[in-house]
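User: Predict the structure for this protein chain, please.
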Amino acid sequence: MAHQLQRRTFLKGSAAAAIACGALRSSIARANDLRLGSEAPPARLVTLDGQSISTSDLKGEVVILTFWATWCVPCREELPALSRYAQQHAGDGLRILGFSLDEADRMAEVRAIAKTLSFPVGLYEQSSAPGYGRIWRLPVSFTIDRAGRLVNDGWREKRPVWTQQRLEQVIAPLLQKP
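Assistant: Here is the predicted structure, written as structure tokens:
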């Protein structure tokens, strides 16, 4: 009887592991399916103050989805540059959504950093961006043009950190209205 119970428990655990592995493979496959010029997968940021912002509601604007964490040094270097750029170009139709990959127990640090930024921030675990795959490298960002197409995929960048020069090169042309 005890052996049957152990076997049943093992099988339940194995099934959960198989489902988790399938979800991971599915997540990676979706990231591999990202195609520049195609419609960007939907994403939704639930901000630290509980507002929900969906990329589908931002058509007509240029959107940068940036994934970061408080413990990530390159992220901490990149965020002020993104914040300045967002502030400078808010009137030009630029929106940046910041997805923190921190755990809830680091909320005080996340809030402290978010207060210094000119764009909304939320915890990734409370938000959703499933079509972008498993976020395993930080920082990583994705850019969506005014028509809702993915135009910059952070997975393909050798050095994903935004600098003023890179922002001018990649984002500035997107902000120019036809």
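Residues 10 and 96 are 45 Å apart (CA to CA).
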